[in-house]
Amino acid sequence: MTDTALRRADVATVTTPIGPFTTIVDSDGAVLAAGWTGQPSTLTGLIHASLRPTELRQRDSLGAATQAVIDYHAGELTAIDAIPVRQQSGEFMVHAWEVLRKVPAGEPVTYTEFAGLSGRPAATRAAANACARNSAALFVPCHRVLRIGGALGGFRWGLPAKAWLLTHEA
Questions:
Q1: Is 91 helix (H, G, I), strand (E, B) or coil?
Q2: Binning pLDDT at 50, 70 and 90, where does residue 4 land?
Q3: Strand ranges, E, within the chain
Q4: CA 73 to chain centre
Q5: What is the DSSP letter of 77?
């Protein structure tokens, strides 16, 4: 695919208890970006340039991805687990995102523990960076990573949203 080739993706927004949630999926249904916003443009810039769509098609539903968001917020905490995600970066970052998908709901870890789970126990900053650069919030549950002592740390979608998610999963 050339840089000028048309790359389409579908987008849908649903209402959740903590605000609108928008998901962008590739042609095969893999989540490229997601988060608590009603503005798809907020998400497109988070997508790696090699995956970034040149055209977004607004949909009422994205099928399984949209249903997973609805079901998760309704209490089915594992509904997001089977939805494919596609993110691109360096080897460690991609691996760290895969590891995040395995952190169980209700069992948050610290950034230090997350670094260890990712195979680089001394790389706490790199682990935190993986959370910060995650474009597929909820589906790659970076909200499940806390500071030592249980402090929330940062969250792109706001600390009230992170607190709600952690309480929802407890």
A1: helix
A2: low
A3: 8-16, 19-25, 31-35, 55-58, 109-110, 145-146
A4: 14
A5: T
pLDDT tens string 37-49: 999 999 999 999 9
Q: Dmax over Cα atoms in the chain, in whole Å?
A: 48
Residue of 31, 39, 19 lying closest to 162 (CA atoms): 19
Nearest to 157 by CA among 30, 16, 3: 16
Q: Out of 34-38, 143-147, 153-157, which region has the weakest mean confidence (pLDDT)?
A: 153-157
Structure tokens at 32: 């490229």
Compute the distance between CA of residue 88 and CA of residue 96 in angstroms, rounded to an integer.
Answer: 12
Statement: residue 2 has pLDDT above 80: no
Q: What 3-state DSSP class applies to 73?
A: helix
Contacts of 150 (CB under 8 A, 6+ apart): none
Q: Structure tokens of 38? A: 């009603």
Helices 124-132 and 91-100, axial angle in degrees (round to 10): 80
Positions annotated as catalytic residues are 142
Identify whether the C-beta of residue 32 lies closer than 8 Å to the C-beta of residue 9: yes
Give the DSSP letter of residue 104: P
